[in-house]
Amino acid sequence: PPNSSAVRVPTSSRLSSFWAQPARLLPVVAQHRSAATRLTAAAAAVSAEAARSLAEIDVDAVRVVDGRIDLDAVRALEDPLVRLQGALTDLSGEIEAVDSPWLLDQLTTRLEDLSGDIDRQRLKGDNAIAAVQQAPALLGGEGRREYFVAFTTPVEARRLGGFGGNW
User: Fold this and answer.
1) Residue 155 and residue 91: Cα distance in Å, rounded?
2) CA–CA separation, 12 vs 34, rounded Å?
3) What's residue 59's pLDDT?
4) Does this model's pTM top 0.90?
């Protein structure tokens, strides 16, 4: 059931209905209507792409079995992540495109906040894509790998990295 205290976001179809058309002719109102129409359409597209991408991601397939990770399962994560990243980039571009001096300061502030949130998510997405792209090579996809892992203790701070007394 809908929460009565929740804020309802107008959908693109409501903003495009016949009774909303006169709003296109009113200064300031027209810019807000246009921004809302474009942003709801972009948000719907991002939501749909996010749902498709997340449905394709099988995190349970990326696990250790007999001391090995299925590298094909790791590689399969790249395409959905790239598509999701593209959708976020499109939404970010749409937010920039609707920016107008006619928009109220409250809306401009919220759009700036949203843009900052999207930028942070895009950075995380870039990191996830880079990890997925590099993981197969790190995990032996291009030949045998041997690693030396060292743990230090911050109690003995030598060169700010601690002291690796045992290995």
Assistant:
1) 48
2) 10
3) 86
4) no
